[in-house]
Amino acid sequence: MRLSVPILCAAVLLGAGARPTSATHYDELAVAAKAGDAIKLRSLLDSGANPNDYDGTYSALMYAAGNGHVEAVRILLARGANVDHRDHNGDRALLWAAQHGHADVVRLLLAGRAAVESNADPHLITPLMQACRYGHLAAARVLIAAGADSRRRDHVNDTALHAAAISGNAELVALLLRAGADPNAKGKYLDDTPLHHAADFDRVEAARLLVSAGAHLDVRDHKGRTPLWSAASLDHPAIVEILLAGGADPDARDTTGTTPFVAAAGRGGTAARLLVERTRDIDRGFAAAVWGGHADLALRLAGRGADVNAADDLGRPALAGAALHQGAELLDWFLGKGVDLPRHGVAALLYAAETGRVDLTRKLLDVGVPVDARDAAGATALHIAAGAGRVEMVQLLLERGADRGVRDAQGRGVEDYMSARTGIIDLSIKQRQASRALHPVKHLADRLENLQQNHATIKALLAR
Hints:
This protein is mainly alpha-helical. It has 26 helices and no strands. It has helices at about 10-15, 25-35, 40-45, 60-65, 70-80, 95-100, 105-110, 125-135, 135-145, 160-165, 170-180, 195-200, 205-210, 225-235, 235-245, 260-265, 270-275, 280-290, 295-305, 330-335, 340-355, 360-365, 380-385, 390-400, 415-435, 440-464. The chain is elongated and about 95 Å long.
């Protein structure tokens, strides 16, 4: 999800930025403004300091406003400080005060004729948008009372309501809706609405308010995702409940054809449980639930008539996903349901070999899956198990008559698969070591050492 670039870096408020180039009076004025030292400010101004001196970018008023020093702001305004002076970013004191939620300062600046919003504000981001982004209710109230437009758009067509939905401040969302904010405003590039933001960031009360205000439930973003799809894919069950209760389509597909249940099945499972009896995508949903580790959800969909030979959205047969589940019960269930072993047995065998599931491999071989069965690239279970360093698996496959000299469609043998696996880890270590950033490599080095030891054992088994 996109966030607009923050207007103000915290370092600025601490005094970072260009070094002052004007007179000593300015240096002292800026320090006093940052600290909110009213006595020092008056003394400097009485002795001739210019309230509109600045260091090439930041004014004393901006420092006082950004740090929330009400009296300092009052003094500077009374002495003629330019309320709409802009720094090198185009920011002004009102933007600084709104971003940091200094409502009393916002009020003072507006009384001093600061523009409540301006086309000259960077990226068209208004003080109201800044207050809402950071959840500052009191500042937003002051701005709206002064005439800030709750429907105004920034450079990417986002509104203050988009920002408030991200912040999750329900009172702020309610305030904007009362002020006429559009709950269905869409962003320019991502086509996302405030409800999308509430769903993405799990802002439950904000979502409830937006739905009550008439937010479109099945509106789609640039990838065809509805708010329900987003909430389901991120496992935000409370949002899913709100949207379903409001009448959202439980099977609204994104541009890839993926339904909310399928998107949810790969996550924690709480949201998927809310959708399992509602989804009509039961075949792919069944396979997605198996691969997501949710056998109970898969069985519920099977009870609704799901095809045991179904594949998930990546084309992986549900049968192969049984290797992700403890024990052999799920595999036994598939076999009892007459799963099509000629179609899916090879994929199941190869995935069991990859994951080291000796128990499942033994069962698959016992029911007739050929030990030297190949995938589309010509790889066998022995290739896969050896590359992954699965010593016990290699031992079982050899006992069952696996061809030691087997080669895939590109002519690669078992030792080539082992070299490829260690090569991947070794390359990752070298890339991390060559990086200017600090990237730990010990865990990779330990993995590589363990894999090499297992490969040595496997080579000895192959040589017998």
